[in-house]
From TrEMBL:
Gene Ontology terms for molecular function: oxidoreductase activity
Pfam short name (any one): RedAm-like_C
Residue span, NADPH-dependent reductive aminase-like C-terminal domain: 168-293
Gene3D superfamilies from the UniProt entry: N-(1-d-carboxylethyl)-l-norvaline Dehydrogenase, domain 2, NAD(P)-binding Rossmann-like Domain
Entries under InterPro entries matching the protein: 6-PGluconate_DH-like_C_sf (IPR008927), 6PGD_dom2 (IPR013328), 6PGDH_NADP-bd (IPR006115), HIBADH-related (IPR015815), HIBADH-related_NP60_sf (IPR051265), NAD(P)-bd_dom_sf (IPR036291), RedAm-like_C (IPR048666)
Name this protein carries in UniProt: NAD(P)-dependent oxidoreductase
Alphabetical keyword list: Oxidoreductase
Record-listed E.C. numbers: 1.1.-.-
EC top class named in words: oxidoreductase
Length: 295
């Protein structure tokens, strides 16, 4: 049995697709791994690969100095971590919470951990399960630097890049929220685009290479927008907001002519028209972020 001073042991709580990928990567890297999941049975193949299957969550956390929890959200991680037996077993040990939720929930969990003598780091995983254990995985971490450095060697067994974003425990979740905002609004736009294209007789397969071309335009635009926002420049030279409004109106009209809900694009168009109404029609699109951020 490992003790909590064993630096090469880890417990993984939560064996959904991501928790299983994490536990598998730890095992592949030779880290002694104890696993537990609320619904029994999910640990079976991991145990066949060498994991210790714990009978309870408190037995699981007692097996290692470091516990990684990866469940659906913080209601779920609270349900696991805040039972009396688990909280008691965690005293003096470290929890890294890689479940996704809000920055506020991360800060509140850190307060709870501190009140119970539990050392706490928060984190976010920015890539799919298939990347875990490979160079393509992206992990973000936040919380006490010294604690992060102490557990970094084991965390790096998960492969990919690990970035410590700072001591503010909510910072990893803040990045996660912002990055998933980009992802989900892009995916909602893509779903809408496929529906409108299909109504015009264009298949998803036909559109794909051109859709990928549009995605490829974005990285340099993100860089330019960041410069604009940091410098307060908002130059619309060559591509003013008024032009965006006109393009968006064409999309709304085409969509609605086919009876397809254009709500995603109508919302975007509304943001743009508000900026124009405030006198920013000749500015670039990055002005929208400044207008939205006004309180
Ligand atoms: P889910 O988000 O579906 O989480 C499933 C896990 O949560 C299971 O272990 C499940 O246990 C557990 N769970 C749910 N409710 C409770 C509860 N009340 N008490 C205890 N355990 C509970 O699947 P993933 O594994 O994919 O995701 C885990 C986290 O990783 C999420 O926060 C997700 O956003 C994040 N993530 C996932 C990615 C992916 O590609 N899958 C990519 C990046 C981040 P049970 O089996 O008993 O139901």
């Amino acid at each position: 049995m490992s003790t909590h001073s064993d630096q090469s042991a880890v417990t993984v709580l939560g064996l959904g697709p991501m928790g299983r990928a994490l536990a598998g990567a730890f095992l592949d890297a030779g880290v002694r791994t104890t696993v537990w999941n609320r619904t029994p049975g999910r640990e079976r193949d991991l145990v066949e690969r060498g994991a210790d299957g714990a009978r309870s969550a408190h037995e699981a956390v007692a097996a290692s100095g470091l516990t990684v929890v990866c469940v659906v959200d913080y209601d779920a991680s609270d349900a696991v971590l805040r039972s009396d037996a688990v909280t008691a077993a965690l005293k003096g040990r470290t929890v890294v919470n890689l479940s996704a939720d809000t920055p506020g929930r991360a800060r509140e969990t850190a307060d709870w951990a501190a009140a119970h003598g539990i050392r706490y780091l928060d984190g976010a995983i920015m890539t799919p399960t298939t990347t875990i254990g490979t160079p393509a995985a992206v992990f973000l971490h936040s919380g006490p630097e010294e604690l992060y450095q102490q557990h970094r060697p084991v965390l790096e067994a998960l492969g990919g890049s690990h970035t410590h974003l700072g001591e503010d425990i909510g910072r990893a979740a803040a990045y996660d929220i912002a990055l998933l905002d980009i992802f989900w609004t892009a995916m909602a736009g893509y779903a809408h685009a496929l529906a409108v294209a299909r109504a015009e007789g264009v298949t998803a397969r036909e559109l794909t290479p051109f859709a990928q071309g549009i995605a490829g335009i974005l990285p340099p635009l993100f860089q330019q927008s960041a410069e604009d926002i940091e410098n307060g420049g908002f130059s619309g030279e060559g591509n003013p907001i008024t032009s965006a409004a006109s393009s968006m109106a064409h999309i709304v009209h085409t969509s609605e002519a086919h009876g397809i809900d254009a709500g995603v694009m109508r919302t975007a168009e509304g943001m743009v028209r508000r900026a124009i109404g405030l006198g920013h029609g000749t500015d670039g699109f990055s002005r929208i972020a400044e207008v939205l951020g006004r309180r």
